């Protein structure tokens, strides 16, 4: 039950990140950090479609990890970043400062190709021609009734469609 | 008491667990519906590439796909754009995606005036842009010549160097009526006197080219020899020579529709090559050298750049070729020479587009980019190009309304479904083609009954929706597939890595 809820939190968070970044334009994704580095936030704009023959992009958006305690934080999605109608929604509450099995030592401790990557880590890879792929690593962890920290980690690879 | 408490707790846990399972199932079903909608968009893209409208199935008869169902609505927009709206349904999940495409874009011509490695423009040169008034056909083109426009792009993956006239000697200013885009790590180095009317920037990404094919044309006839005692010759059918050389004082007219293939094309001083596309397009394919010597002449009879292309292609990716357009005259068409140093010294007025490896535009040369090529052009792949992809609200329909799985709704509403292969509206086709004997033929009927065994080369395709024949198309996805299958091309030139 406990693990199921943890899995659900991770799956829903990753699905939301996936849907947001799928609609993004490769030209408007920032920062574009390649492995082994990574970032805990990403800014982007999504397509609003075509009006009068012109491709219209939406207001800037951000997905980021924000600390709540010294060890843990949440994943937030910010819409209309920096604009008067900016709003923020929390997608996950249980994301540790670093990925599972990773420590801050400038090494790839968990052997996933990334160094000292945060609990929400994002890096990019340029595929053929215009394609931009964003790799998202997410760890969600909670302390169970026995006091043990139970982590769940997964990576998704998203191709920006615009 | 204890039993009741445990039972209540147990029931509560079961309820929480089933809510969680439902959320997970919904999430899985939604993701599956998203992928069904993406697959539907792919099917619709393929249909558009084939020259069809893009509509697939409907909410009254959805198509089956991977345990789910979909339909795609297509809406034609101005400027040859089409909006595709795909709805995917899987289990309890539903998802709608929107895609706006340009129906067909000539990606090669859209590069404008391009040197993949570098571009050098000499002092006094003019690079501008022209567009026709929209009239099609010979009469329209003759009556309404191309008009000036401002959409030229000079592009490179590397540096672009533009020289102005010598301040001491003076001379006409070097003028670029449009934008100049160097490569991601390149720079634009322009003399202060150079006039650029548009933006001067470095691109965020490099340029890439599609693959090109070289037609076989039945094998080489050796070297072209000029008929004795004559000063003029006409080629009006596909021709393949090792060397195609026009000596001084002689004139050759290429009369379309035809293709000319030669290892080397040499037009000597005082010789003339005339391109006549009055009755059809002309493709010139050279593999080694393409030389128009100074004092030679190159002329297009019809001012339509979409009807003639010169391809200087080297099948071996380590080879490089040389293209020198030292001729006088006016040439309307595309020049595609991705592994060549292309030199346009100055006497030729070229109206069309140029893609070279290294491009040198000489002093006082005039290059006019023809915007018409973005929607046409001979011998290049014309494929739909994505403009916008977005997630949309799921439309209201009996199949998307209310709870329950799609399978339950289909059963309850007695809605029939169709296999994916039967989802396009168009079932019959009019296919114009050359048969194995080179005879031009027209087939009209179901796609499934096209006599592919006797189709050597596809010329045009038009689809029927019901009894209404849709406009003719030249879908490269069909033409290329048949060319490859029948072996009418013998070399594929891959893009520069």
Walk me through this protein's architecture:
The complex is a heterodimer of chains A (162) and B (497). Chain A is mainly β. Chain A has one domain. Helices cover 13% and strands 42% of the residues of chain A. Chain A has one helix spanning 2-22; strands spanning 41-44, 47-51, 54-57, 61-67, 72-79, 87-96, 120-126, 132-143, 149-159. Chain A has a 4-stranded antiparallel β-sheet, covered by helices on one side. Chain A has a 3-stranded antiparallel β-sheet with strand order 7-8-9, with helices on one face. Chain A has a two-stranded antiparallel sheet with strand order 2-3. In chain A, a hairpin with a 2-residue loop joins strand 2 (47-51) and strand 3 (54-57). With 497 residues, chain B is mainly beta. Chain B has 3 domains: 23-104 and 383-422, Pantoate--beta-alanine Ligase, Chain: A,domain 2 (2-Layer Sandwich), CATH 3.30.1300.30; 108-380, no CATH class; 428-493, no CATH class. In chain B, 15% of the residues lie in helices and 44% in strands. Chain B has 4 helices and 34 strands. In chain B, the strands form 5 sheets. Chain B has an 18-stranded mixed β-sheet that branches. Residues 133-149 of chain B have low confidence and may be disordered. At the A-B interface, helix 1 and strand 2 of A face helix 1 and strand 28 of B.
